[in-house]
Amino acid sequence: MPALGGSPLPRRVRVLVAGGGPVGLSAAVELGRRGVDCLVVEPRPVVSTARPRCKTLNVRTMEHLRRWGLADRLRARAPLPASWSQDVVFCTSLTGHELSRFTGVLGLVPDGDRFAELGQQAPQYVLEELLREEVDGLGACRLALGARVVAVSQDDSLVSVTVEDEAGHRSTVVADYVIGCDGPRSTVREQIGSRYVGGEDLRPNFGMVFESPELRHRVRHGPAVQYWIVNGSAPALVGPLDRRGTWWAIAFGVDRTTGERTAARIIDGVAGARTEARVLSTDPWTARMQIVDRMRHGRVFLAGDAAHLNPPFGGHGLNTGIADAVDLGWKLAAVLDGWGGSGLLDSYESERRPVQERVIREAAANMRVLSTELLADDLESSGLAGAESRRAAGARIQETKRAEFHSLDLVLGVHITGSPVIPPAGAAGTAAARPGTRLPHTRVDGGGSLYDLLGDGLTLLVLRSGTSEGAIEEAARARGVPLTVVDLRRATHRDCGPLLGSRLLLVRPDQTVAWAGDEAPEDALTLIDTVRGCPPPASARCASRPVPNP
Q1: Euclidean distance between CA atoms 455 and 484, whole angstroms
Q2: CB 85 within 8 A of CB 96
Q3: Please, which pLDDT band fits residue 489 given cuts at 50, 70 and 90?
Q4: What's the pLDDT at 199?
Q5: Contact call for residues 445 and 421 (beta carbons, < 8 A)
Q6: What is the pLDDT of residue 549?
Q7: At what angle do helices 317-337 and 22-32 cross, to 10 degrees?
């Protein structure tokens, strides 16, 4: 029988998460912090450091880590602090000519009060190890390492999951819900009959991690989070994993056989000179632009790479998966806690699919111009011909690559439309804080984040006097919905009115504005029922957990 830290697996849990990578672990954190009993099943006993595919944690992911109390812990472990560099450099080699440069990239520099946390460069395994520790420390969560999901079946009320350990022993775990976060080769996706739809770029790419302590001292262009190498011998993308001489690289147009045979030559081409280096791991891949035809079947959901795949350019893949986990995690918790209705779960795919499709489009657009498309005659020549060739290349780089590194509008500008749990915007929908968008961020109380004032359930922000917030409070209490009321009229808070627009804002646990208005609606119960996934007439059948008067 598969074991959990030497003990048998539980036979019954509320949520089983298949896959304990960053997305599955994020779902477990979202659930476990709300007291939901969950089991994470992950085949790898230890976190792999060999292939750190994700290096970019965007500002939105860092805002979620802040909400979980993990942002500072992640930064303390990251080998490269955000202050180390905020640049992306295009060059003929690490010791060659610089062609162009982007500064203030990937949310690594402040933009006024626009976000609560800067982005962070960190190998995926750093995040994954931190999330494992957090999940292991949550009383409601359990990790089953060295085990994998091999079969899933369900009826109207439960899901039966067959789990197999490394020795081939099998047992059955029964859950209320299952989240498939088990990657591109997802067993859960196969079991529910979902399939990828989309395309693939057949051009091969050869990823590798190598060690070369001397190389960092030879770079002519100063610190950067990425160096795009534009030369005929080794068109590539490379960057540091730490400050000790560990590097990651992607050689464009190189297949597995060629890459393994010529890895040393590729490194020399990237460096621009003969370089002592030791290859630590290799990772050949091709880009896929795919999304599943359905993300839910009954009580089983898909998230992260199990649901969608995109090229890595722009660093959106893992961050999009974590946003999936956040969205689904709080909604499942609300349903299992008795105050959320089935409409919340119905909203998962309708809210996430447009975001995922947009990410795939943007990442595919970023892939249209790589180092191979920037090659030109005379880039490494001296004299006027070389100078003119490099000037033209720099202009093209600025024209075609800026959106890849300055993508905060994509990261922060999500606008959910057509969701069954976000009421149509009224007159207040033209304000900055529109329903379906991320709550605009600002600093309050002497520099603290507005987000730190939000509760784990719904939050009602009261910005101005003369509002009728009591009706919304009473409706939430009647329906058993946890509601935190934040009074922003206090003198200690800066005036948030110009930024947030409306006098009243109802905010979801994922920091998305659910409703905005200057006065409570005439039927506040209908508002609360809609946001909790029980719109009329379904509200009459939805369970509710009345909250006593304080």
Answers
A1: 5
A2: no
A3: confident
A4: 96
A5: no
A6: 40
A7: 30
Report the candidate in 250, 393, 223 with the shortest Cα–Cα distance to residue 312.
250
| Average model confidence (pLDDT) across the chain | 93
For residue 491, pLDDT beyond 70: no
Residues in CB range of 274: below 8 A, 6 or more apart: 268
Q: Are strands 38-42 and 141-145 parallel, antiparallel or unpaired?
A: parallel
- Indicate if the pLDDT at residue 544 is higher than 60: no
pLDDT of the residue at 469: 85
E strand residue ranges, 47-115: 56-57, 87-91, 98-103
- Give the single-character DSSP code of 51: -
CA of 13: how far to CAs of 40, 142, 158, 401, in Å? 10, 10, 10, 47
CA 365/CA 471 separation, integer angstroms: 48
Q: Computed from CA positions of residues 505, 534, 471, 427, in that sequence, does the dihedral angle turn out positive or negative?
A: positive
Tokens of 63: 């805002």
Residue 548 pLDDT > 60: no
Phi, psi angle pair for 278, to nearest 5°? -130, 120
Segment 99-103 long-range contacts (CB within 8 Å, at least 24 positions apart): 99/230, 99/374, 99/379, 99/390, 99/393, 99/394, 99/397, 100/393, 100/394, 100/397, 100/398, 101/221, 101/224, 102/401, 102/402, 102/405, 102/406
Query: 471 CB contacts (<8 Å, ≥6 apart)?
Result: 520, 524
Q: Which of 286, 287, 211, 181 is nearest to 50 (CA)?
A: 211
